[in-house]
Amino acid sequence: MAKKPTLRDVSRLSGLSVYTVSKALNNADGVSARSRELVLKATRELGYVPNRAAQELRRNTRSSVAVITASTSNYYYIDLMKGIERTLRLSDRTAVVADIAAEGVYTPDLEDATIRNLIQSRTAGVISTLTLRQENVELLADWDIPVVFVDSHPPENTGLPSITMDNAAASLRVGAHLAEHGYPDWLFLVYPALWSTRLARERGIREAARLHGAELTVLESRNDAASAHATLSAHLDRPGTTAPRAIIAGNNPMVHATLTVLGERGLRVPDDVAIIGFDDFAWAPLLDPPLTMLDEDSEHIGVLAAQTLARLIDEQLDAERQGRSPTPVYRPEDSREVSADLVIRRSCGC
Amino acid sequence: MAKKPTLRDVSRLSGLSVYTVSKALNNADGVSARSRELVLKATRELGYVPNRAAQELRRNTRSSVAVITASTSNYYYIDLMKGIERTLRLSDRTAVVADIAAEGVYTPDLEDATIRNLIQSRTAGVISTLTLRQENVELLADWDIPVVFVDSHPPENTGLPSITMDNAAASLRVGAHLAEHGYPDWLFLVYPALWSTRLARERGIREAARLHGAELTVLESRNDAASAHATLSAHLDRPGTTAPRAIIAGNNPMVHATLTVLGERGLRVPDDVAIIGFDDFAWAPLLDPPLTMLDEDSEHIGVLAAQTLARLIDEQLDAERQGRSPTPVYRPEDSREVSADLVIRRSCGC
DNA sequence: CCGTACCTCCTAAACGATTAGGCTAAACGG
DNA sequence: CCGTTTAGCCTAATCGTTTAGGAGGTACGG
């Protein structure tokens, strides 16, 4: 097609003004059945499809929501996205994912560039899986773009909503279970605090260790399996270090690294070293041995986050229509902590 | 912020016309250093960010590319997306994923709606992971939107580019390996032909069975682990059916189902039943037993697809600037088949 | 037959950017 | 000193929609 048909073309062909055509296509009233018919006929004939950029410019509304992630190779993102997309579909919105980790590594520059980019496209709203820089949160606030955090927390004092699993309670439960087995020394292999759930998880594990008199080592690695592998190997190689009786793996990549390292060293799970991991996933029961894992329902978290965001956006549109300020109003109950189950399999020693 | 700053505001504050401001912000020449400085100062002061909808409307260009998938729970999509995003970033484009499976099940209606949606937003280009309906491919062609298929084929006679692994050759290799072990009867558990790699894979496996005199059963299931589980269980329960000596699992969900079903029935892998699966992934070596799998480098496939698409879009823009037709011109060499490795572990009996 | 109300439709002004075409003043050559 | 070039800037049209503010016409009651 050389020239794409526009509203004006439909108007010409149907013999009606662009006003009428627009009204007819948007099912607004004030258009006779006969005219509506004519418009639809002309539309079909020309294969006309409205230009969203023009609509959004004129209506001052956007249809897409951004999901900010860092290095999506953690499988739980899939479920999260599923929940988000399913929910957004209901209100005819689209999710676009923006990964702010370049080659697997997070950089503030990329975060800044991404935020600028989102503002340029006047995103309807943002769901972020990690704590954003204070500065960027303010920027989004300046532009009245609603933000919801999932599996992460807003920067301090911003009061933005966040939806996480109850990490502290869950971690306590993990610790309690290890204590039941009587393991005296634990190693917590964990990702950086950039992913802010790390804090609550660590707090819970520390508390549990104190409570049950276990000795605890916390080992931090970059948030990918290869780095975790290197970190754990180096730790175990350190002179005077012996393998811990139990390892708690902070997330999916940490679990992968732990299993690999133990396998390489001929350490048997759970006889030599027990493992409990965070974030259950489909393959956990099929691993050798089947893994005991904390099961966060991330699809549900995705749904909650998308619902909250959708409501915020809708309220914003209402406010704007009524001439009130478009600044999003967050309520305390927008923040939620959902509980998680400990799925007991065999890697813990059960 | 009550009212968002526009170009006009920057113009007012800087005392220069919108023309000059626009030129300055786009680093075009014809602007003195002094003016440029004034413009940048005003821009910073106001926190001005250009409105992409307006730019795209005026310039008639789009910055986002759509990736069409169906039920992304197949893990290999993650790598594919990684490759695509990494490549698109180079030309400042964004990927948006559009899933045309509603609750895990594909519906033509959703496909149609999605395509309409993409045309409405005048997507710069499309990467599709499954064969689209003829009709929709024509629609995209009408609107001069370039399309590239990955891990799938275009509808017949459309000549659109596709990038896949060399499924037939790979399947032959799988069969040859099973034959080396001397397994007499094989079961191929496979997803529907909507994902068109199914055809080449089946062709290859059938050919291999014929070549090596093995008996072959092909069992089709919907493309998710739960359905595959039900299908395989029902098959094995059928009176007179005995478990095959080897199972070839057509993709990731099929592998999951196979391992689960065999586990439930107390059949040992590989002693009772051997398994080879398609689409290697990070957890395969840690499963019980470590899985022998075909390794398709899907990140690389993603890179190739995105490169091809980017080139098509760039050529289209050039053509348009020079007043030529914006119809994308596909070259035969845009279609590629990349080879895959068979990663031998233990589930095949080795 | 007139006034009023109600439909239906139209004209024209936005939305926020880009850009063709033209103007001005400074610089330069002769 | 004058004509020509050029850098720097401006005015105004344009992209494809939506929508405020009327304008005509029909129907109806009085």
How would you describe this protein?
Two copies of one chain form a homodimer. In chain A, 48% of the residues are buried. The model of chain A has no long low-confidence stretch (mean pLDDT 92). In chain A, helix 5 (76-90) links the parallel strand 1 (64-69) and strand 2. In chain A, helix 5 (76-90) runs parallel beside helix 12 (298-321). Chain A is of the alpha/beta class and 350 residues long. In chain A, the strands form two sheets. A six-stranded parallel beta sheet of chain A has the order 2-1-3-4-5-11, sandwiched between helices. Chain A is 44% helix and 16% strand. Chain A has three domains: 7-50, Orthogonal Bundle (434 Repressor (Amino-terminal Domain)), CATH 1.10.260; 62-165 and 299-338, 3-Layer(aba) Sandwich (Rossmann fold); 167-296, Response regulator (Rossmann fold). Chain A has helices at 7-14, 18-25, 33-46, 52-59, 76-90, 108-120, 134-142, 167-180, 197-212, 225-237, 252-264, 298-321; strands at 64-69, 94-99, 125-128, 147-150, 162-165, 185-190, 215-220, 246-249, 274-278, 292-295, 336-338, 341-343. Chain A contains twelve helices and twelve strands. The structure holds a DNA duplex (30 and 30 nucleotides).
Give a summary of the structure in a few sentences.
2 copies of one chain form a homodimer. Chain A is an alpha/beta fold.
What are the main properties of this structure?
elongated; Rossmann fold; 350 residues; DNA-binding; homodimer; six-stranded parallel sheet; alpha/beta; 3 domains; 434 Repressor (Amino-terminal Domain); six-stranded mixed sheet; 44% helix
